[in-house]
Design brief:
The chain crosses the membrane at residues 33-51. Residues 23-80 form the F-box domain. Keywords: Membrane, Transmembrane, Transmembrane helix. This protein is of the alpha/beta class. It has a domain at 372-469. The protein has 11 helices and 22 strands. Strand 12 (282-286), helix 8 and strand 13 (307-311) form a beta-alpha-beta unit.
């Protein structure tokens, strides 16, 4: 019988001595690397880290990224039985002390401030002078309205060093008129929950000749906004659910990506004018009332269009998607609304990927000879009693539109949704007779795996690979 040899281990006297603590490799890093690491931390954490050693203490003044957040940082000032107002006051004093410290460099790369505003502009205006003095390149301001709405000082809209500006929860419309804007280096502008009028938006765009990315999300006060820019490449516009716009006009010849999100409770349509943006490659519409023919007239004109997303759009029963260059289409009609589109005709010879989410009452016609992948999410049928002959007949007809696709993924509620009755198999041809790769997933667990597998092979008799998740 073989014996197991044990490896002998010899212990020396030195091995009995206690092990020293793990080697401190951070202290061996150059100052520039340590400063870079500290810049990724919230400012209050970076200050605490700088107290670890005398060497780190002097590095605090060299950090070029400042990040203050009342919702996050107030926890550092919390003490047992402390009043919340007292914690907030300590946070305000902390920001005051930080901004009054001497900094070795004359410029700051990024300044982020998230704070509640209760009125009284003196302190807030003093804080706003800091990015002006330090020639900040990236400015992120989230001013939560507590009792009053803070109006951004117009001087910040002439901070020539800015490359990124994100504003949330404040006002840009001034009492004396629209502010003068001079932001020659600004590349990205994000406006969230900002109060402004059409003229303010126009002035912003005129003062940003190098702007490439613009986000306008849930902003109040706009009626007929115009986005006019020669440099803009990406635009996101999310409509405010309290103030509906009438017309959105976009004239940006270099625009490549446009995303528009409407309001689901809106009964009329917003006229979206993109006819001067023929170079768009990526287009997305969500919760849009598509009355009229503006959508069907728009799509064929976009000769560079590569991807299109239509999510929960309503107002018309039929949508035609005709484009000679489209490669990716995502269509989602899962919302239970009577105004939702019920038929889509797809005529896209270059289409490679198609994603559909919805119920089988929706009719689809697909003419896409180069389709490589289809992702089908059949929703709304978890009740087993809902699966009758009409359901299965609709399913067979629906799936047949995707025959010829190289790879298909199907998601549905339960296994019964895809177990086709034998009497229907006898009178209908297999809907996916040419499909070779099929992946199937159900929301509920599988109990009749063999019947399910046989049904899948009837649906796709030429299968080479079947994956059941």
């Amino acid at each position: 019988m073989a014996t197991k040899r044990l490896k002998e281990q010899h212990t020396t006297e030195g091995d009995l001595e206690p092990k020293s603590m793990a080697e401190d490799r951070i202290s061996d890093l150059p100052d520039s690397i340590i400063i870079h690491i500290l810049s990724f931390l919230p400012t209050i954490v970076a200050i605490r880290m700088s107290l670890l050693s005398k060497r780190w203490r002097r590095m605090w003044n060299l950090i070029k990224v400042l990040n203050f957040s009342v919702s996050r940082d107030v926890e550092f000032f919390r003490r047992p039985n402390n009043q919340k107002n007292n914690e907030r006051k300590k946070f305000f004093n902390f920001v005051d002390r930080c901004l009054n410290r001497p900094y070795a460099d004359t410029s700051i790369e990024k300044f982020t401030l998230e704070v509640e505003y209760y009125g009284g502009r003196h302190r807030m205006d003093r804080w706003m002078r800091f990015p002006l003095k330090k020639n900040v390149r990236e400015l992120v301001l989230h001013i939560k309205r507590a009792r009053a709405l803070y109006c951004l000082p117009s001087a910040l809209l002439s901070l020539r060093s800015l490359t990124l500006l994100k504003l949330n929860g404040l006002e840009l419309t001034t009492g004396s008129g629209s502010p003068i804007v001079n932001l020659p280096c600004l590349k990205e502008l994000c406006l969230f929950n900002v109060v402004m009028n059409d003229q303010v938006l126009n002035n912003l765009l005129l003062g940003c000749p190098c702007l490439e990315k613009l986000h306008v999300h849930y902003c109040c006060g706009l009626l007929n906004p115009q986005v006019l820019s020669l440099s803009l490449e990406s635009l996101e516009y999310y409509e405010c659910n309290r103030y509906f716009i009438q017309t959105l006009t976009v004239e940006a010849r270099n625009l490549q990506s446009f995303e528009y999100k409407g309001v689901s409770v809106r009964k009329d349509s917003c006229n979206v004018n993109l006819f001067h943006c023929v170079g768009i490659k990526h287009l997305s519409f969500s919760d849009v009332c598509m009355t009229g023919r503006w959508f069907e007239d728009l799509i064929p004109r976009l000769n560079s269009l590569e991807s299109l997303k239509i999510d929960s759009c309503y107002g018309v029963k039929h949508i035609n998607v005709r484009n000679q260059h489209l490669k990716e289409l995502d269509f989602d009609c899962r919302l239970n609304r009577t105004e939702l589109t019920t038929e889509i005709i797809i005529d896209t010879p270059c289409l490679e990927s198609l994603t559909y989410s919805g119920c089988l009452t929706f009719r689809i016609s697909v003419s896409a000879s180069n389709l490589l992948y289809a992702d089908i999410n059949v929703c709304g049928q978890l009740d087993k009693t809902a699966y009758d002959m009409e359901w299965y007949t609709s399913l067979i007809k629906f799936l047949s539109e995707f025959n010829g696709t190289k790879n298909i993924r199907i998601f549905c509620g339960s296994e019964k949704a895809l177990i086709i009755p034998n009497e229907l198999r006898d009178i209908h041809p297999s809907p996916l007779s040419d499909v070779k790769y099929l992946k199937v997933k159900t929301a509920l667990p599988l109990f009749r795996k063999e019947m399910f597998r046989k049904s899948m092979h009837w649906i796709s008799p030429s299968l080479e690979t079947l994956t059941i998740e």
